[in-house]
Amino acid sequence: MISVVIPTYNEAAVIAETLRRACRALEAASEPFELIVVDDSSTDGTAEFAESLAPQFPVRVLRRPGRLGLATAVVDGWKLARGDLLAAMDADLQHPPEVLGELVRALRAPGADVAVASRYMSGGGTSDWSLVRRFASKSATHLAASVLPWTLGNVSDPMSGMFAVRAATLDGVRLDPTGYKILLEVLAKARYRALVEVPYVFDRRGAGSSKLGGRQSFEYLVHLARLAGATGQLAAWVRYLAVGLSGATIDLVTLYLAAGRLGWPLLAAAPAAIELALVSNFFLNESLTFRSCHAGEHEIGSRESEVGSRGLLSRFLHYEKACVLGALLNALVTVALTKSGIRLLTAAAAGVVAGGAWNFLFNIPNIWRVWGAPTPVSRSISKCSAS
Ligand code: GDD
Ligand code: MN
After folding, report:
1. CB atoms < 10 A from the CB of 161, how many?
2. What is the mean pLDDT of the chain?
3. By the 8 A CB rule, do 26 and 100 touch?
4. Residue-wise pLDDT tens digits, 169-206
5. First-to-last CA distance in the chain?
6. Atom 29 (ligand 1): residue with closest C-alpha?
7. Which CATH number fits domain 2-231: 3.90.550.10, 3.20.20.70, 3.40.1570.10, 3.40.50.2300?
8. Distance, CA of 370 to CA of 321 (rounded, Å)
9. Of ligand 1's atoms, which has the minimum distance to the CA of residue 6?
10. What pLDDT sits at residue 302?
11. Phi, psi values for residue 224, rounded to 5°
């Protein structure tokens, strides 16, 4: 049986259609189901109206005393659930209820414990989002992948609000999310072995408008920080940044000695200094930052066991490959600024900042994937094409 929690805040105009389509989708999937509407004191009568639909649909309504947030609404709804599968879906028809059938099929097939409806895989998409909303969503996804690389691995849409999870993977787990992103909480804390993504197109709202605002964005950042602490990634980040600072120092000192004292040509000194820093960073990350990772040889949420049997040399070569663009950017900025008359060490510092910024903004999941994640179980991510 699947228990679908539908969080509502002022969705009276659309909730009947949502319940009807959800029932039709789950009947078509021949899956026993229940719907749990969790309403946060809507002012438009959503709760009363949903309760009046109980004779037509297998729906229960949990009323909460105030607007307490989407993610905790899902958690509270799951506490009432009777199903062995738990799901979440928005009430406004932007998550097409028909996708529930896909999520059920994905979890009724052997292996997967989590099934996520993804906008960012082939067959997925967002219908009428503005460029601003698309950029905001992609940036939020990228930020999460950089702050929580062990948690998100290759999940293409960790911001998704539509997903299903095997209840057993949450036994004994205390879900304590902030804001909107309940899936982040599940990915960080559930003991799951395999996650399947199914494509969907985020649809137009059935009625009303999005309740996402500045408060939810702030809560998202708080949630990320809390999960980084709870999963050990914050401590790993502190070690990783300390190693990066040591590498920057090695880069600058080596460049000063080679080009400034030994008279090496800049085009030889800059790459040599950067490479020496990279080698030092690799061995310090190997022995300090990610010590608990490669020992377990677990994946970081990849399809194949990229880390599984990787030895030291292979990790080193993967690290060099992951860092090559940042290193090139560092060298380019250093040489260009020096040639334009900027003092050598100032130019080199600017090169370090440029290369470091590139890695921080675009490359962290790639770099951290060299060592994998200290997950208790190896995890795999696979994708279901639209059936
Ligand atoms: N109970 C409760 N409490 N429900 C809420 C609250 C709340 O404080 N805030 C919003 N909801 C309900 C809305 O009624 C709707 O059913 C659902 O949560 C989503 O709210 P929207 O405001 O429409 O969110 P969105 O469309 O901008 O974003 C949604 O989709 C994204 C992509 O899947 C959310 O689910 C995001 O978390 C998600 O990333
Ligand atoms: Mn919506």
Report:
1. 20
2. 91
3. yes
4. 999 999 999 889 999 999 999 999 899 999 999 988 88
5. 21
6. 161
7. 3.90.550.10
8. 10
9. 16
10. 40
11. -60, -45
Q: Give ligand 1 pocket residues (Cβ under 6 A).
A: 7-9, 11, 38-40, 67, 69-70, 73, 90-92, 94, 159-162, 180-181, 202, 210-212
Token pair of 320 as six digits: 């060099």
- pLDDT-based confidence at 297, cuts 50/70/90? very low
The residue whose CA is least distant from atom 19 of ligand 1 is 90
Are 107 and 115 spatial neighbours (Cβ–Cβ below 8 Å)?
A: yes
Residues 79, 154, 149: CA angle, nearest 5 degrees: 80
The first and second tokens of residue 254, run together, are 């080596």
Residue 219: how many CA atoms within 13 Å on its side-chain side? 19
pLDDT at 308: 45
Range list for CATH 3.90.550.10 in the chain: 2-231
Whole-number Å distance, alpha carbon 225 to ligand 1 midpoint, is 21
Q: Quick check: 303 pLDDT over 70?
A: no
Q: What percent of the chain has pLDDT over 70?
A: 93
Residue nearest to atom 8 of ligand 1 (CA): 69
Instruction: Tell me the pairing of strands 163-166 and 85-88.
Output: antiparallel
pLDDT of residue 338: 95
